[in-house]
Amino acid sequence: MAAKKPDIHLYRGDLPPGLDFGDAVAVDCEAMGLNSNRDRLCVVQLSAGDGVCHLVQLDKDEYDAPNLKAVLANKKITKIFHYARFDVGILKRFLGIDCTPVYCTKIASRLARTYTDRHGLKDVCRELVGVELSKEQQSSDWGAETLSESQINYAAIDVLYLHQIRDELEKILAREGRKELAQKCFDFLETRAALDIEGWPDLDIFAH
């Protein structure tokens, strides 16, 4: 099944006040690249899992987004990411916030779906939700002044199904007795992202 067309709201600079994402919000970031120490944050997209996506396009060198920061830093709201290590790090660097608590569907997939090595969002979404995602715009210029319709749709769809994916992964983690282990990994993500930012992205600090 192809991904359904989401209801998209695009904002420049910040979220409008008063949006309610409930107790869990799906979040993703688009940047100029995947090096959080080199590449700048360009877009943050959020969804409450209701088919509505809110995209915030951030201007270069202007990251004063109080409403966006308030949602992401709210400790009563779980932030659902796929590959949270990158997103948590780049949000810390550019917005100066800690995104706790966090749920990472990529970590959950690695702990739950041990029968495969395919843990990208496209593969996880296809298997667990039955939806085929297009990744055509994954490598594109997210720093452009005006985003294309294809970019906007791609960014929105990346958060549209994260709530459903989390729910399906939770079932497997519970069945296999790995929920507590997954939670400990999620709790460590803030520290893991800090290590990336401070210059230890690949070194295994636990090694002999």
Summarize this structure as a short list of keywords or feature phrases.
208 residues; alpha/beta; Nucleotidyltransferase, domain 5; six-stranded mixed sheet; 7 helices; 16% strand; globular
List the helices and strands and how they pair.
Layout: E1 7-12, E2 24-31, E3 41-47, E4 52-57, H1 66-73, E5 78-81, H2 84-95, E6 102-104, H3 105-112, H4 121-129, H5 149-160, H6 162-176, H7 179-198
Parallel strand pairs: 1-4, 2-5, 5-6
Antiparallel strand pairs: 2-3, 3-4
Helix pairs in contact: 2-7, 3-6, 4-6
Task: Provide a quick synopsis of the model.
The chain is α/β, with parallel strands linked by helices.
Report on the architecture of this protein:
The chain is α/β, with parallel strands linked by helices. It has a single domain (7-198), classed as 2-Layer Sandwich (Nucleotidyltransferase, domain 5), CATH 3.30.420. The protein contains 7 helices and 6 strands, in the order E-E-E-E-H-E-H-E-H-H-H-H-H. A 6-stranded mixed beta sheet has the order 1-4-3-2-5-6, with helices on both faces. Helix 3 runs parallel beside helix 6 (162-176). The longest helix is centred in the C-terminal third of the chain and has 20 residues, at 179-198. It is globular, with a radius of gyration of 16 Å.
